[in-house]
Amino acid sequence: MTVREDILADRLNAEPTIFKGCSSSELGVIVGVAALVWLPVSLLLAGLMGAVTMGFGLAGVGVVATVVATASLFQRLKRNRPDGYYQQRFVIWLHDRGFRRAPFVRRTGAWDIGRNFHAPLPSRDR
């Protein structure tokens, strides 16, 4: 009887890539944001032209084009970089513009422990 070691999905270190280097959660966010943008815009444009139902088709095409373009952008950003790189870069970008505090140490320069005197060592006499 042979023992077979299967790769189990719950033992992976990161989410597997699904499309152009993006994981399923990243693709879900891209699709959600694209739909929130394209659906109202396309329905408004199609309504102005008198064919409201055509707006859904236009929104579908816009969402697909946005997903392909954004996934290609993320693929370039993530190339040869560690997991979570672009999320950290985004947090640092927000910190630099004052929108959010970064949880990272962003200080450059010499470090000091802040003491002016040496603490006495415990004696070895017991």
Q: Helix segment count? A: 3
Give the beta-strand count.
2
Strand order of the largest sheet: 1-2
Q: Structural class given helices, strands, pairing?
A: mainly alpha
Instruction: Please report the distance between the alpha carbons of the first and last residues.
Output: 64 Å
Summarize the biggest pleated sheet: 2 strands, antiparallel
Structural shape: elongated
pLDDT under 50 segments (min length 5)?
none
Strand coverage percent:
under 5%
| SSE series | EEHHH
Radius of gyration over all CA atoms, rounded: 26 Å
Helix content: 40-55%
Can you characterise this structure?
With 126 residues, the chain is mainly α. The chain has a domain at 16-96. 50% of the residues lie in helices and 4% in strands. A two-stranded antiparallel sheet has the order 1-2. Helix 1 packs antiparallel against helix 2 (54-78).
Tag the structure with descriptive keywords.
mainly alpha; two-stranded antiparallel ribbon; 3 helices; 4% strand
Give the helix/strand layout.
Blueprint: E1 17-19, E2 22-23, H1 24-49, H2 54-78, H3 85-96
Antiparallel strand pairs: 1-2
Helix pairs in contact: 1-2
